[in-house]
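cache lookup: miss for this entity combination. No prior model stored, computing from scratch. Input as submitted by user K.M.:
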Amino acid sequence: MTKQALRLGVAGLGTVGGGLVRLLATHRDRLALRIGRPIEITAVCARDPNKDRGLGNALGSATWYADPVAMAADPAVDVMVELIGGETVAKAAVEAALSKGKPVVTANKALLAHHGVALSRMAEAAGVALNFEAAVAGGIPVVKALREGLSGNRIEAVYGILNGTSNYILTDMAARGASFESVLAEAQALGYAEADPSFDVDGIDAAHKLTLLASLAFGVAVDFDSVPVEGIRGVSAQDIAFARELGFRIKLVGIARMTGEGLDIRVHPVMVAEGSALAHVDGVFNGVVVQGDFVDQMVFEGRGAGAGPTASAVMADIVDIALGLKLPLFGVPTETLVPAKVAPVTARVGACYLRLSVVDRPGVIADIAAILRDERVSIESLLQRGRAPGEAVPVVIVTHEVAEAAMVAALTRIGNLPSVLEPPTMIRIEEIKRA
Amino acid sequence: MTKQALRLGVAGLGTVGGGLVRLLATHRDRLALRIGRPIEITAVCARDPNKDRGLGNALGSATWYADPVAMAADPAVDVMVELIGGETVAKAAVEAALSKGKPVVTANKALLAHHGVALSRMAEAAGVALNFEAAVAGGIPVVKALREGLSGNRIEAVYGILNGTSNYILTDMAARGASFESVLAEAQALGYAEADPSFDVDGIDAAHKLTLLASLAFGVAVDFDSVPVEGIRGVSAQDIAFARELGFRIKLVGIARMTGEGLDIRVHPVMVAEGSALAHVDGVFNGVVVQGDFVDQMVFEGRGAGAGPTASAVMADIVDIALGLKLPLFGVPTETLVPAKVAPVTARVGACYLRLSVVDRPGVIADIAAILRDERVSIESLLQRGRAPGEAVPVVIVTHEVAEAAMVAALTRIGNLPSVLEPPTMIRIEEIKRA
């Protein structure tokens, strides 16, 4: 008995779409063995059907569409694979497929971070899966881990290095002692960073992914616009060097924790201790730490982007659909998602790294120390490097745990001292319990 | 509409069984929300029903059985959870449940390493799931990752630190410069090691788990008795210290790779480079590296044992059954499993660390170097530490890649030199590409 093929309509033939076509061509038999029937691409959607994508005749007799909404309606398409990106055409395509009762696989974090709850409701009403493993941390099966593998836990916290481009830049800055600007320019030349890098380096992409992880981990609906986000443009080679000297690495980390104040969710540069779980996730790799009440700490590391890893995740979602697995988008019925009360960053209590550029003259440190004392910020260590009487020298301070509001108040006052020459730099230190 | 509960029969109320009871008591509502119906323990099986297990009244009105086979027949049991361990009673219990058409969840690696293929066939014939996430790497959802999350890949290699006890011992030996014997004794006193530690420290437990990972990764049936296994009794504090000096850590690693010679599968102490993925998996933690053709390198780290993490994995398997997910034991139909041709360790080609205890007198190194030259073993570095003319001093050699057979031949000859005082120590160096 030959079972009927599972027929895919693939919208978007860029890097990920091309990777998926190649993966299927490479592993057609292996996958058929696994799911008991072949998988075929019966329709594709891309702007220019004549462009050479290096896919040879891997697309065979697939029907070409210019409009993914039209493709969704093709009766020869069982599953819509949305790899277009963005929130307009992609949204229309996903909605069209769901409204036809067809399951959808997407790699689109922006779409789900903004419209996940509504789409979850649609998929649920249609009784079909809307899978998005590839939308978070590329090839790492962390959506599956949170939705299934760790389902017996109350998740306490999720920490992630979720953007490969910014992690590559920070890693390269550290390796070469180079500035953000010069490393970014080189990453752009090498194709590791986009011409407009803001989604990556300003933390927006990481925040999209973190929002999805938070919904999965805590069963909450998150208003994306309420998530505090700060990127890596302000991280200097000097801060990276001082961090190293103090036993830390600087990473762009997404943090999501349930606290008494609400959902503590934020993306910003973080100093993590040398030996901690995320410290050695370098280059384009992503890493996710999940803290669960029964499992304790779990760490996942892998490639967060690229054709192969992303296609791997997309295919896993397709295989799940072929096997009949059908879970709500965020693991629980949409109606039970609780709107998250996002805690303000000012509610944070934690250690901080401060770097000040001060005039090297007697009494400056005393002035700074007095302000910190007044604002009840306790100093753990202080470094003053180089001597250049009358000129600018860096002063680095690591604080004990401090309320963010007090820290901000102190920094405002310190920044106003005449002997402090530049706005102070502050990087939060987060303790991620070591595996 | 209240759906009928999913009713569990739990065989074995030791550490893991107790953990499962506690997990269910803690997360009853959370789990019911996830799967749409409650989970209940309706039957339990343990030798002494009157023993105080600290479970309060969490077991409610569950029926007590002395015989798990009888429990499997209880019509009030939908799913058998086998947490007895061993291969006799446990096997009978699993078979009884499968023969009644009931799905089974087990944490029993020994059972599956020896009888996995036969049990897979039984489960398949019965059309039910036989899930075993907890049998490999405790709380880490690596079975799910290989069976589902990475299903779009040809897996090229799996490397794992799979036994928490031996990893704890090696980590503690490194931290304190202590001997295997003294650390083992302390671990036994602390309850981290069994009174008879051989399953753990001789690599058998790790080999059970590795065998299961190999079947999942490569779709092969492995004859457990053909897997080369060497434990950590021969690792000395001196070797750990030299390893550190050379930029390595010594870990008990399970390796499984498909090669031209067949399945390269083995468990033994390995020197891994400082910066590589498994080097910092310390203490009781487990770590698994999976290399796939599309996803590239994936690393998973977490607690490999203990009540909480293991119960987390058992519950994930139960949830999968509740959600209707039903996969073959090793991800592919049993009949398609290919009997693995296990490559002999002598087929290995790789670098080695050698430590010799030699008499400190002129010409000794020349004799050793001549033998290595004759056997075509190329030296990468050589350390001779301490001077004590006429007495024993250690000589440490790191080789370039060398055929195992040549290495063994050279070591036999070297061991026979009159100036070499003890049988040479050899530890294989494995390069696990860094994430």
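stored under new cache key. The mean pLDDT of chain B is 95.
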